Amino acid sequence: MSRCLSKYNIGDVIPIESMRNEYIKILDKGLSDSEILSISQDLFNLGLTVYSKDYNLDSLLYNSLSISKIDEKISLYPQQVKLIETIKNNEALIVSAPTSFGKTFCVFEYIIREKPKNVVMIVPTLALVDEYLKKIIKKYREVFNSYKTYINFDENTKYDYNNYNIFILTHDKALENNVYKRIEKIDFLVIDEVYKLQKDNTNDRVLILNLAYYFLSKKAKKYVLLAPFINDVSDKEKLDKNPILFKTNFSPVVNDVIIKPINDDHFRKQKIKEIMDELKEEKTLIYFPTVSEIPKFINEMIVPNYSKIQIEDPRIDEFIKWAKSEIHEEWYLVKAMERGFLIHNGQLPSNGFRMYQLDLYEESKQFNLLFCTSTILEGVNMCAKNIIITKPARKDALFDAFDFYNLVGRTGRLYKHYLGNAYYIKGPSDPSYNKEMAVKTIKFEATDESQDFEFHTTENSIVEEYNEFISKLGITAEEYKENIGSRYKIKTIKRIYNNYLEYKQQLLNELNNMNENETRGRGNLIYILHQIINKEDGKDREYIRKLESLIINYLINKNRLKLKTIINKIKMYYKNTSIDYIISLTMRLKSSYVENEFYSMCKIICYFLKCDKVSEREINIIISKIISCIDYLYFSDSKCKKILKEIGIYDYDIDKIIDVIGEDTEDITEIIQLLKDSKFHNLSYISQYIINRL
């Protein structure tokens, strides 16, 4: 091993992780077969059998006996074999392993080897649903052909639990309409990115994640929780089935942090550009803390400094032309692509746009640089040689070491990049990070003293804050659970209720006016509801709220207006507001707010009105003018339509497709086969792309 460890002194105790890293770095420099042969026994001894291959007898025999059941071209390395055996031999397991370990691959390998009948896989985002589907339905289709695959759960569907089923659900869907109660059998449960179960009093989603885990794990015969950098979970003995911890630092790739200091934050953007120019030939992610910083950077640094490129693939040109006509010619994604850059964040118009950008990043030699936000922290598997961390933060909160190294771990990839580099632009007030600090012990809300969790999981629970609020509404605990539900913590519900009381008279006056005048528009009603949901004082906030309310009004028009039409209409009314801001705001409201927070809060406000004995006729105005419109536009009435939307089909094409394939199935495999076998006319670029991609 002397060649790789020459920097160490004789007698030094060298950690095995450091030894592995040194060998991987040597491999990254490019070795001939004879050079690999000379170190192959060392590679084998270090567990790097994926690199020692058949270069020596030990490795040849090992790799021959550890061939994957999913992919015969792959031999599992020893730590992966150990994990699969640990899953097999335990009914509950927490897995902590680096991003590049291949945790998800091991889970799929276990499924194919042991064939559990009813598999439920819970993930935090639609991006991870797509990741899983790519493996099950596309990459390893033949070995999973005995399974029916679902990405929704329909309470009215009779599922055959004697058959083989895989349900891939987001946390929200696991709780939607009490799905956790309706899934009759779970033989194997997998929850990914489980560090998100850590208690956080400021985050409503943490409650959803913990409730999903709590109810499903009780029903599951066996479950596995996946995470990076977890040292331990406090009080895990209180968790159902008392899971054991499988912890490993093994990684077949190396991640290096390269600090790029700046003396003043004013130099940050210039430093980003300098590093980008150095790395333009390598697959590189450029991470920004917020979505809004990406268009600013594109307008300030990309448009003035980079010429439009000659795009080699005419299909990409076709997409850009379509995006200009569908979204806007001033859209920052269009400006970026014309200059050779890609975009990935949660505010793109549909899942299809995100898939398209990721596919181009993976496949096109012309597009090596991708601007992104924290969506890539959600387990999205990307082939990145480098990442530029422009600021170690998410929104207004600085990263801790866990978040920082989770981001660093997105670089490097087995069979593609031995070494991944994270370029950290470190300003004078930015923290220093130590990898040892990234590994932390967490505590789930499920085992902490959480009044929210206790209320939703304990029959006849006595939770003072809930009981006071329930008494104020004049309802029972069961009525609260049925009509308000578990999506929001009690502090959030009380805040909305206090806002409701403040604006209640305005709301009642508007409902009365609309009741008396059926031709009256809903614009003011939307403004009042939006104000209840997002009450903030100040002239600037009032201006923005009016702008947002106008956009929402257009977005929930049942005629399904094109985004470009909406953006241009808004610009006519708000001439002094930048087009970039209008475009970004419209995207944000469409992609997340209207369908989720605005929709669910409007339903809760209707329930407050019902508790206050407001007439059903007036409550129905909100239902018919707003809630039913969102149901229609976001396909709440049809599981098949919802699935089409979630696999990336553009909203405007879904009814056209349903006219051809019908909506009698929710098995994703059957839907995809129907899409592949059918002929469609006049579909948008992005929908046709998604179908061709299947």
Please give a quick description of this structure.
It contains 30 helices and 17 strands. The chain has 694 residues and is of the alpha/beta class.
Describe what this molecule looks like in 3D.
- The protein has 694 residues and is α/β, with parallel strands linked by helices.
- The chain is 50% helix and 11% strand.
- The protein is built from 30 helices and 17 strands.
- The protein has a 7-stranded parallel sheet, sandwiched between helices. Strands 9-16-13-10-12-11 form a 6-stranded parallel sheet, sandwiched between helices.
- Strand 11 (341-344), helix 15 (351-363) and strand 12 (369-372) form a beta-alpha-beta unit.
- Helix 23 packs antiparallel against helix 24 (563-573).
- The longest helix has 33 residues, at 579-611.
- The radius of gyration is 26 Å and the shape is globular.
- The two termini are 46 Å apart.
Notable characteristics:
694 residues, single chain, six-stranded parallel β-sheet, globular, 50% helix
Q: How are the SSEs ordered, and which strands pair?
A:
Layout: H1 16-28, H2 33-45, H3 49-52, H4 57-65, H5 78-89, E1 92-96, H6 103-114, E2 118-123, H7 126-139, E3 147-150, E4 164-170, H8 171-175, H9 179-182, E5 188-191, H10 204-219, E6 223-227, E7 230-233, E8 244-247, E9 254-261, H11 268-278, E10 284-287, H12 293-302, H13 314-326, H14 332-338, E11 341-344, H15 351-363, E12 369-372, E13 386-389, E14 393-394, E15 397-398, H16 401-408, E16 419-426, H17 435-438, E17 440-442, H18 451-457, H19 464-473, H20 477-483, H21 490-516, H22 523-533, H23 539-555, H24 563-573, H25 579-611, H26 616-633, H27 639-646, H28 654-661, H29 668-677, H30 685-693
Parallel strand pairs: 1-6, 1-8, 2-4, 2-5, 3-4, 5-6, 7-17, 9-16, 10-12, 10-13, 11-12, 13-16
Antiparallel strand pairs: 14-15
